[in-house]
Structure formats: C-alpha cells, structure tokens
Automatic annotation (TrEMBL):
Native source species: Virgibacillus indicus
PANTHER family in the cross-refs: RIBOKINASE, SUGAR KINASE
All copies of domain Carbohydrate kinase PfkB, residue ranges: 20-263
Xref: InterPro entries: PfkB_dom, Ribokinase-like
Protein name as catalogued: Carbohydrate kinase PfkB domain-containing protein
GO molecular function, one term: kinase activity
Length: 271
C-alpha cells in the first residue's frame, strides 16, 4: 500500500504539562500508516516557517514519511491547546489554525501526478480539500475522517466521491449510528466506520455489519487513538481484504496509542 495523507498538521500543546507534540489527523495517519506497514507513506500539507514547522518536518523524515511536497509558508504553524481529564480524555481548549487559515493548497500538474502515484489518499474535514475530492476520486481510492461533523448537506458534497467514511460517534446512540451508516451508504460510500469511545466500533460494507469491542488497556492519553484506528484499519484492509481482522487490529492499535502521551511521540518542552 502506498498512502498519501493530505491536509492538517498542528502542534498539540498540553497546557498542564507544557509539552508540545506533532499532531493533526492527516499528519498522524501519514506517520502511523508507515509504522503499521505501508510500503510508502507521504504527507502533503502546509507548515509555518517556525520552529514548530521544522520540528514536524524532521519528525516525518525520521519516520520515513515522504515530505517532498510539503509547503512552507511565512507564519506560524497551527497549534491546538489541549487539557486532559483524570481519565485521559482530551478536551480541545483552543485551536489556532496558523498558516493553514491564511493560504490554500493549489495543486500543479506535477502535484497531481505525484498524488496519483499512490494507491490511497487520506484526508479529513479539517484539511480544506473538499473542492478537489471529486476530481481526485476518478483515479485514486479515498478515505475521509469526518470527526463529529455529520450535517447532511456536507455529507452529500463528500460521500459520493469517497471509499471510506470515518466518524467519531461516542455521542450517538446505536440507533443513531445505524441511521448515519445507512444514509452514507445511500450516498454511494462503500465502507462506513463509526468509532464510539468505550463502546464497540462499527463498520459496514453495506452487506454486513462488523462490531469490534474496545480492547482493554491503560489509558494515559486518548488523543490520536482514532487516527491509530484509521491507519491500522486501512493498512490491514488493503493488505488482507479481511474487514474483521482489520477491525480487530485497528482497535488494538488505538488501545496502544492511549497508553502513551502524544499520538506518535516527538514531544518537546515549552517554557
């Protein structure tokens, strides 16, 4: 599998510990997909020309992620201020988008050729790639993380063009999850996944429902657990085409991530 992740990258700032870690859905999936066995993993996104941007780029390079198409822009890299409760659940206190709010990626013909040299593209609701997805979907499989965003108008603009839809649904009842899955399938998305916090994750391929209970383990920090789940599921699915196995391994990967601070490490102290 050759995966390319396009979109958001930030520094996650844990204000109680005064430590920053690289993060952001697209960035996390790029790193974790490589760790989990992807033949190639690439990241395309916008970084500021500050210390944080350089730190993210160096972390990607150390993890073997291709950074050749990263854009560096004058200004600050995005930052998310995070607070953890006693159980390790994260609360987003503040999000400063930085340069990603100031400029938008424009793809050249060479960029498009590079993107299509991969077998799968992952992006998210935070990546500002919505307008490009219809065209890209003609030539590459796409997964999209909607997080908790479920407005029908938005779903109708994205779901007809993607292969995997991921949702965070810890606030939804089982019936609401099933209704969401049914609606997204009607929009022609083949695989729909809803993670549900401490409850079993659900995957549907429109023919069968797969439910995977959460693997028990130590919970230090839940940040990045969903991205671990997505990364492992995609890598294992494209390797084995076994959805049941992919769900099991994805859940185990998410549990392991919860036992660590930061999604994939590379933290540094902030005075």
């Amino acid at each position: 599998m050759k995966v390319i992740s396009i979109g958001n990258s930030v520094m996650d700032y844990y204000q109680d510990r005064k430590i920053m870690y690289p993060g952001g859905n697209a960035l996390n999936v790029a790193v974790l997909s490589k760790r989990y066995g992807a033949k190639k993993s690439s990241y395309v996104g916008i970084l500021g020309n500050d210390h944080e941007g350089s730190h993210i780029e160096k972390a990607l390079e150390k993890e073997g992620v291709d950074t050749s198409r990263i854009r560096k822009v004058e200004g600050a890299t995005g930052k998310v201020k995070i607070k953890l409760d006693e159980g390790g659940d994260r609360e987003f206190v503040e999000w400063k988008k930085g340069v990603q709010e100031l400029v938008k990626m424009q793809f050249t013909s060479e960029d498009l050729k590079y993107i299509l040299s991969h077998s799968h593209l992952h992006t998210s609701v935070y990546s500002y790639l919505d307008n490009e997805i219809p065209e890209l979907s003609n030539d590459i499989s796409i997964s999209f993380d909607f997080s908790t965003y479920r407005k029908k108008e938005y779903l109708r603009s994205i779901c007809p063009y993607i292969d995997f839809a991921f949702f965070s649904g810890s606030d939804l009842s089982l019936a609401a999850c099933e209704n969401l899955i049914e609606y997204v399938h009607k929009l022609k998305t083949k695989y729909v996944v809803v993670t549900r916090g401490e409850h079993a994750a659900i995957l549907s391929d429109s023919y069968k429902i797969y439910k995977q209970p959460v693997t028990k383990g130590e919970v230090v920090d839940t940040l990045g657990a969903g991205d671990s789940f997505i990364s492992m599921l995609l890598v294992q699915f494209y390797k084995t085409r076994d959805l049941k196995l992919a769900m099991k391994m994805a859940t185990e990967a998410a549990t392991k991530t919860c036992a660590n601070n930061g999604t994939f490490g590379y933290g540094f102290s902030v005075s």
